[in-house]
Amino acid sequence: MSERACDACMARSWLVGRLAGHLERARSRIEQVLALGVDDLIEAIGGRETARLEREFEALDVDRFRSRSYAAGLDAVCGCDPGYPVGLRALAAPPAVLYVAGGPVDLLGGESVAIVGSRRASPYGLDVARSLGRGLAVSGITVVSGMALGIDSAAHAGALEAGGPTVAVLPASADRPYPPGKRALHRRIVAGGAVVSELGPGADVWRWMFPARNRIIAGLAAMTVVVEAGERSGALVTARLAQGIGRPVGAVPGRVTTPQAAGPNGLIAGGACVVRWPQDVLDHLFGVGERTVHEPRREPPPELRLLLQAIAEGHETAAAVARAGFEPESGLAALAALELGGFIRRGAGGSFRVVP
Amino acid sequence: MLARIATFAIDGIDPRHVWVEVDIRSGLPAFTIVGLGDAAVRESRDRVRSAIANSGFDFPQTRITANLAPAFLRKVGPGFDAALALGVLAASGQVPADALDAYAVFGELSLSGDLRDSPGALAVAEGARRAGLERLIVPRERAREAALVGGLEIAGVPSLRVAADVLTGAAPPPLPPLPASQSTAQAAAPDEPDLADVRGHAAPLLALEIAAAGGHNLLFEGAPGTGKTMLARRIPSILPAMSRAEAIEVTRIHSIAGLHASGLVHARPFRAPHHTISPAGLVGGGAPPRPGEATLAHHGVLFLDELAEFQRSSLDALRQPLEDGCVTIVRGQRALVFPTRFMLVAATNPCPCGFAGAGDRCRCGEADLRRHSRRLSGPLLDRMDLLINVERPTEPELRARPETSSAHARDRVAHARERQRFRLSGCGACCNGEMDAGLVRRHVRLEEAAEHALAQAYAVGALSARGRHRVLRVAQTIADLAGHDRVTRADLLTALSLRQRGDAGTTLAA
C-alpha cells in the first residue's frame, strides 16, 4: 500500500466519519457544511458535544485510523497527493481523502463519463444504460456511476461486459457493497475497476451521504449522462452538481408519457446534450468525428434478419416469429440463435428485446 | 356365542387386516366396541342397532362385546359398520356363523339398513386377496371398483338384508352396469380438456409436447390471463395412457381419498391445489396420516399455480417427493410411505404486478423483481427443465383453426417415449427427464454443429454448468420427438430457447 494520504487529511476524514450522525441534520446544505474547516465544522455540527469532539479530535491517533483502512484493503489518497483526481478539485468541498478498493488510483485520473439514473428503471432504460456503458468502455472511457439498483448497475455491467474499467462511488464505505444485494457486482468492479468512497472503512450509511456521493460522481466525470430519472431523482442532483462546476450534461430522451423520462427530457429542454448512443458522448466531449466507438457491429445471418427486424418493431415475440415466417419450432431455434449472437435479450416475462 | 369376521382398515393408502369379533353373553343389554376405534367407530353402535332392527332382524337384548383386532392399530371411519352388524347377526344365530369364514366385509350402514358408498373398496379388495380370502362383500356402488382385483368373488350389495341373504347362500346380485362414459375403456371422457381447444400459443404447445415426451417438469411464466392454467390442464391429455397397473394404483389412492365414483380411473390425475396449502396438505400428513396432493397426483400432473405465493415450507416439503418418487411420513411409532411420481407443472407471473414484458404496463423496479425471483429460487426450480413463456395470443390467432389435437400430440409423445425406453433400458431412468449428469454424458450425442452452438452458449455466459445439463436433457427429448439419432443444432437451439433465465452463468443487472 502506498502512503498517499497526509495526517491532516486523514484526521479530517476521520472527523467526517465521526460526525456522520450529526451531519444528518444538515442534510439540506451538506455541500456548504462539508466545505467548512475542521474547527468550524465541529462548532457548527457538534452542538452540545462540541467540547468532547474537540478533545477526541486532539487525541486522535491517525496511524491507528490509517491502519484500519489498510486492514480493510482500502487505499487512501488525499488532496495533497498528486495522484488525487484532478476533477474533484473543482468541487466546492472536495473530499479530504478518497478511499479506493481495487484500483489503481490512477484510474480515477483518466477520461471518464458518469452514467446515472433511476433505481426504478424501465427495461428500455436498462438496455440503453448498459449499451452506453459498453460502448464508452470499448472506446477507452472510464464509466463512473453509483452502483445503485437500476440504471447505475446496468451502466457498470455494460462497461464490465466490454472489459473496460469502471468506477463505482459508494455513499458510505468502499469495502462494503451498498446496496447489499449488489455484492456480486461490487466484487466484479473491485476486480475490474475501482470502488471509491469519501468515508473510511466500516462507516454506516446515512441519508446525507447520497447527495454527497453524487458530488463526487459529478466531480470525477468529464461529462454526466442521465439515462432515466423521475422528477425527484438523485440523478438530477448529480446533473445539477455537474452543471454547477461547468461540466457538460447529457440526457437520453424518453417517451414523454413515461414518468422515468421526465428527468432527462427536462434536462434536454433545458439545453442538455441529447445522448442517443455512445457516439453522441464522444462527439460532445472530443468534437464531432474526433473519436469513434470501436464496437464491432456484426450483422445477423440473412435468414434471421427479418425476425430481428420484427422484434425491433416492437411486436410480441410470438407475433414476431409468425411475422418473420417461421414455424414454431424453427422460430424458437431462431430466437436462441439471435440471443447467442447477442442481438436480442430475453427480458422478464420472456419477451425478447433488441440489444441496442 | 362368538362370531368372527374379516374386514380391513385403511392405514395411509394400504389395507390392514382386521378381525371383528362379536361376543354375546347373558347380562344387562349393552353394546360395547373395544379395539382403539375413533369417534366414527364408537358411533357405529347406534347405526348397527338401528340398521339391524330396520332390516327385519332382532337386535339381541343381551350383553354384546365387539372387538376390533389387532388392538394396537388405530381404526378410523365408518367402514366397519357392515362387519359389526353381520358379526352381531352371526353371534345371535340369525346368519350361519361358519359362512363368514371365506368372506371379508366392508361398508358403512345407514339407519335404514342400506349399505352406503364407502371409499377405499379397491384397497380392501387388494387386502382380501393378499389375505387369501375368497369372497368380499362391499356396497353396490363400489362393486365395479373392487372387481378390478382379480381372483375374488365380489358381492356388491345394496343393503344389510341382501348381505345376510348372500351369506345364507343366495346368489350375489350381478355387478352394476358401467356408467356410459366408461363403456369404451380406451376413449378419454369427452369433457376432458383437449389441445384442440387451444388457439394460438404455438410455442407453448410445442413446449408442452416436449415436456410430456421427456417427462420434464416445467414452469410457465406469463402475465395474468394469458392461458397458463388453461394449457397446464391439457397436459394429462397428451401424456401416454396409463398402464393397467398404474391405473389400479391411481384408482386405489383416489378411492381412499373419496375422489372417485366407481370403476377404473383412465385419465391421468390433474391436481391443482390452492397456494394457501400447508406442507401436510401437499405431501400428506395429519393424524391419522392422509395422502397429500402430491400423492393424489401420482402418475399424473401436480400443478402449482402462482408458485411465488406458496409458503416456502410447503415448497420445500416437495423436495423429497420429487427426488425419490415417494414420501415417508412418520407419526408416532409408524412410518407410512405414499407414492409420489408426478410431473410438476408450475405457473408464475414474471413480476409482482404480472405485466413485465407486456408493453409498458409493468411498474416493478429492480428491487421488486429481485424479491420476486428470490421467492421462486431454490431447489424446486432446480428440478424444472423447461421454462415456457406464455404470451397473449393475437386476434388472428384466436380466429384461426387449432394447431393440433391431443390425440395427435399423444401419438408423437408415445413415439418419443418408445425411443427413450429403448435407449435408456437397464439404467434406472425411463425418460430423459430422469437422466442424471452421468446418464446425460453417456447417452446424449450431439452433432458437430450442435456441439459448437452449446460451446458458444456456454462461452457467452448464457448457461451455467447445471443449466447445461438441463438443456442437454431437453435437447435429447426434442431430438427424440423429431426422430433424430443425434441432437442437431436446431434441436439444441430450441432447447436453449426454453431454458430457465436463472441458468445464465453471469448475474447481470436487470
Mean pLDDT of chain A: 89
CATH class of the domain at 105-286 in chain A: Alpha Beta
Rg calculated over all Cα atoms of chain A: 22 Å
CATH names the topology of the domain at 105-286 in chain A as Rossmann fold
Strand content of chain A: 5-15%
Could you name the CATH topology of the largest domain in chain B?
Answer: Rossmann fold
Global shape of chain B: elongated
Strand arrangement across the biggest beta sheet of chain A: 1-2-6-5-4-3-7-8-9
The CATH class of the largest domain in chain B is identified as Alpha Beta
The CATH architecture designation of the domain at 105-286 in chain A is: 3-Layer(aba) Sandwich
Average pLDDT score of chain B? 86
| Count, helices of chain A | 16
Biggest sheet statistics of chain B: 5 strands, parallel
The chain pair forming the largest interface, with residue counts per chain, is: A-B, 45 and 50 residues
Major sheet size, sense and barrel closure of chain A: 9 strands, mixed
Calculate the terminal CA-CA distance of chain A, rounded to whole Å. Answer: 41 Å
The total of beta strands of chain B comes to: 16
Labels describing this entry:
heterodimer; A: 356 residues; alpha/beta; Rossmann fold; Arc Repressor Mutant, subunit A; 9-stranded mixed β-sheet; two-stranded antiparallel sheet; 11 strands; elongated; B: 510 residues; Ribosomal Protein S5, domain 2; Helicase, Ruva Protein, domain 3; 3 domains; 5-stranded parallel β-sheet; 4-stranded mixed β-sheet; 21 helices; 16 strands; disordered C terminus
What is the strand and helix layout of this fold?
The complex is a heterodimer of chains A (356) and B (510).
Chain A: H1 7-18, H2 20-23, H3 30-34, H4 38-46, H5 50-58, H6 62-71, E1 75-78, E2 97-102, E3 112-116, H7 123-138, E4 142-145, H8 151-161, E5 166-173, H9 183-192, E6 194-199, H10 209-220, E7 223-226, H11 234-244, E8 249-251, H12 262-269, E9 273-274, H13 278-286, H14 302-312, H15 317-323, H16 328-340, E10 344-346, E11 352-354
Parallel strand pairs in A: 3-4, 3-7, 4-5, 5-6, 7-8, 8-9
Antiparallel strand pairs in A: 1-2, 2-6, 10-11
Chain B: E1 2-11, E2 14-25, E3 30-34, H1 39-54, E4 63-69, H2 81-91, E5 103-105, E6 108-109, E7 115-116, H3 121-130, E8 135-139, H4 143-146, E9 153-157, H5 160-167, H6 202-214, E10 217-222, H7 228-233, H8 235-238, H9 244-256, E11 270-271, H10 279-283, H11 293-296, E12 301-304, H12 312-317, H13 319-324, E13 326-331, E14 334-339, E15 343-348, H14 366-376, H15 379-382, E16 384-390, H16 395-399, H17 406-424, H18 437-443, H19 448-459, H20 465-482, H21 489-497
Parallel strand pairs in B: 3-4, 5-8, 8-9, 10-15, 10-16, 11-12, 12-15
Antiparallel strand pairs in B: 1-2, 2-4, 6-7, 13-14
Helix pairs in contact in B: 1-2, 6-17, 6-20, 17-20, 19-21, 20-21
